Amino acid sequence: PPATTEHTTTVPPNAPVNERFPHAVLFGSTCGGTIISSKWILTAGHCTLFSSGGGVKAGTNNTDDGSGVDRRVKRLVIHPLFSVGARWDFLLAELSEPLPLNNKTIKAATLDDHPSLPAGLEVAYAGYGTDHHGGFMRSAMHAMELAVQPDEACSKLEQFKKEDMLCTRGRPPRYDSACNGDSGSGLVDSSGRLVGVASWVENDAHECRNGALVVFSRVGAVRDWIRQVTKL
Question: Taking every annotated instance into account, which residue ranges of this chain make up the domain Peptidase S1 (predicted)?
């Protein structure tokens, strides 16, 4: 099977989380996001419901220790088909000033343009979400390891639509999941290719539990829209 994002040939597995996921940012105060260029962040459309999205923090392993780079958001562009029911859950944020990309702790992710992904593909994300339902955002960045599931695995979930969503579940032995505040975090494969944006979790209105199905918005489904807005 392919290596995980955390075990690439260039970044050792014991490196700080933000060096293993240099594209990951804190978006506003309650969401994650992904650097796709020095001036653009991709996150979840529903993050505008919980956060003003006024700024991002990049390049830090801890949001409370004074490290990292802060940038204000100049413009928000939500996907035209976005609905609160989690369809087309994408938001582009243009920054007022470019981020200082350094390929170590601040790096742009490559955008996926594949129409589908194979079941079993090992993927991962990093963010600052809470570790239990109803908890507080964490200051330390954490990483979660998952695997792409067949669309059929999520078909039991009424909200799931394969046209714009990606079905995943945590890999053994931890069976990682996602929780409040992980929304908008970018899902990447072993090469750092951005394949999804964290959107919702099975039964996430009531609990955050290991082994739950985690649904990401499928980046390959909106590659043309991203290109149209950002010229990337």
Answer: 21-231
Q: Is 183 labeled as catalytic in the residue annotation? A: yes
Predicted TM-score of the model (pTM): 0.93
Query: Can 46 be counted among the known catalytic residues?
Result: yes
pLDDT tens digits, residue range 79-137? 999 998 789 999 999 999 999 999 999 999 999 999 899 999 999 999 999 999 889 99
Domain covering 21-107+222-230, topology: Thrombin, subunit H (2.40.10)
Q: Which two tokens stand for residue 87?
A: 């369809």
110-220: CATH topology? Thrombin, subunit H (2.40.10)
CA atoms within 13 A on the CB side of 132: 1
Catalytic pick among 23, 79, 89, 182: 89
Whether 176 is a known active-site residue: answer: no
Q: Is the pLDDT of residue 145 over 80?
A: yes
Given the residues 23, 46, 190, 199, the one annotated as active site: 46
Residue 203 has pLDDT above 50, yes or no: yes
